[in-house]
């Protein structure tokens, strides 16, 4: 009918109809081709336990965060790219020789934009951090970056993913070097050498550590301060400003943090970089960050002007600015204080400092905030997931003063539930989704009154898992003959992560604990309307195996509670090994005033010790974990 109308219409209308129909056809072809052939998009990268040359799996680039449980991510950081940034090499061509990856002016020129180059570097142990760093920049439409490879394995891996990489010639181990180790300090010197190589070429340099993530394009912000020679982040935890201006330099008492800093190729900046390099090369015991701080504090003041927030530093000629820690966030201002949320600001970056579990702790924090890019198999492990809804009385959270005693009462209540969940996860061979953890006081490395005076830490607050648990130990492969079967864990936000595949979301069993003998409360694999399984409290190992063997193919089993959910393993040897394992999962709280040592050990089995109290070790002989 419509076609007949077109045929009998005037030529003008015939033309219009034809154009519209052709447009619809081409639009459809475009949409279907985008669905069928998405592989040119960087979000199709893979991270895999296998050789990176051999895998081509899709990662979901979107990351969302809602509520206080997960710090919110600015919309700009969640944009899905519509065009590729990377140049993935064809697989039928050989990789160029390593000499082709030397850092040269020509290489930088290919990537630079508005005379700025963004650089990070690392070894193969930080491959997943680097891919996360790159992916975030890609999602922000920022392409003027380079990655320095400190070993040839990383160089090859990044090349085959199309990531712009250069060889630092470091010949470093592919293992995690660990904070404070001699190799760690060597990495710091490599950073200073890089700065000294790039600045004389005339380019601005935004230098970043790999354990930070970009949430918003920082280049427009940096451009607001064209007079700055150096702009640096800091460990400041008390805000000196409540907007997005630079910190008030007179009020900054914390160290300047060189995990994020921007250099302009001015004469003053080059002089500072040169002396910094000479200082570090002359004494391998100096930490690169301490050396930087010592130099720039050699002279600090006066202000450059009344408005910019810049200060004359170092030799009296260098113009320095301190990036606001509310939006160029540390691990404290982002994960603990959520300062940017309280000030209604959009963060540009988060650096995973102020944490207590090494590289694994950094990774876990980013995962909790849904900012880390994991491979598809991370979201769909064999055996499926076990989760539960934590039960916390209001009084434990809100009643009385926030003291060490009230903090431990709250945390111990949660530890006991997590201990039970670990046992059930071990029994059912499932990966435990550890619930969010509430704390009433902060954790630091030194004595403090509960929260830092002047900070914006709210009480109580959702604390990162590493505040209480030794995340690095939980993820470590412990000998099974001594510690029993391993128990995999995931972050509390995993089931809300957009990367969770639909086959997991759609395979779910809710388990409602009930009192045995009550109506419909008996050990059975029959579910009620709505797919809920009623399951008796105080069930033993035999009951669990009998009932849940019917649900081994269900991806997510979520318990309504862990209160009195399990009576323990029937086999004493297995029970002993489990205890031996999980006793090591909890760490310390730090620290009380006027006592040495000032830390207090958490105890996974605190409830079995009637006289247990949250006190620091009274003697040096008592200063050991409770296992």
TrEMBL record:
This is Arabinosyltransferase XEG113. Residues 142-366 form the Nucleotide-diphospho-sugar transferase domain. The chain crosses the membrane at residues 12-32. One of its GO terms (cellular component) is Golgi apparatus. GO terms for molecular function: arabinosyltransferase activity. Keywords: Membrane, Transmembrane, Transmembrane helix. GO terms for biological process: cell wall pectin biosynthetic process. Pfam families: Nucleotid_trans (PF03407).
